[in-house]
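Sanity check

After download, print the first record. It should look like this:
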Amino acid sequence: MSSTPNFTRGKTMSLLSVRDLTVKFAMRDNTVTALNKISFDLARGERLGIVGESGAGKSITGFALMNLLSRPGFIDSGSILFEGEDMASKSEAQLQAIRGNRMAMIFQDPMVTLNPVLTIGQQMVETLMAHRRLSRAEAEEISILKLREVYIPSPEERLKQYPHELSGGMRQRIIIAIALLLDPQLIIADEPTTALDVTIQADIMELLLELCQSNKVGLILITHDLGVVSQMTERTLVMYAGRIIEAGRTREIINDPQHPYTQGLINALPQQTRPGHRLKQIPGNMPSLTAIPPGCPFSPRCEYAVDRCRVELPEPVRYDHVEVACHEVNRLQKPVAEEQSA
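Expected structure tokens:
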């Protein structure tokens, strides 16, 4: 086991390179830390999953990457290099030229994303014309082509419709089409199927995967669903209380998790419990940003915690094929493997 400074890949030509990113929220009496020195890289065309419970910092990470944080949230320190350009230091006008154009985001609820008083065609055409020198007819033609790419039937008719006239699945397909309108190099998808019926979720995720692969688009998928991550991504970051606590290839993390928190997430999956038995769960809750415990933030919920865990924050180290922030990784049992062999 060797020490390593952060959760990076060591690549020199990354599409996205995040270093020691710290995000804070200004409160009335003090500030709280929502992201605590997170670092990672994303290669061109790579698919990266970010997983964890609610409050882990997943969505804040996505908003910070796009520099979409609004007060009282702010980037306190660190860098976000997108194609070599620091997103944290750009003006609003410079960011507008990047967002939607070279970097796009898909949000949880399409009804919040789409403007209810504008037709689909108006929203797509105006997006294109804001970033490209196109006539309205050319913008409409591109919009129709993108709707066909996401398998929207009768795309010419859909352009004339308003969001409320379409189903949830159709609206999310349109959101994906809008995200791909300007051929971005990176898409950040924040729980893109949460608001959809479970029968439609798999189709949407399969579509997103297909489009990212065919267009060689980098993808950051933010989700709490490890099953989706296992099917969609090549690498995974596991977050807890604003820190990355395990990182590596998705297959390695799913099959042989090293951090006790990751093991708990895997063990809590329904397929890990025999029929008729109670589902497993991690005891306790994610700590509040205003009450993060000293030492390892997971220590109050961890069955392996020792005195050192309660006073000293663990730094990431390489262990087997992953990087993990845990003092006791050398002596941990592998609950997942034991359950599967039982």
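If your output differs, re-run the checksum step. Summary of this record's structure: The radius of gyration is 21 Å.
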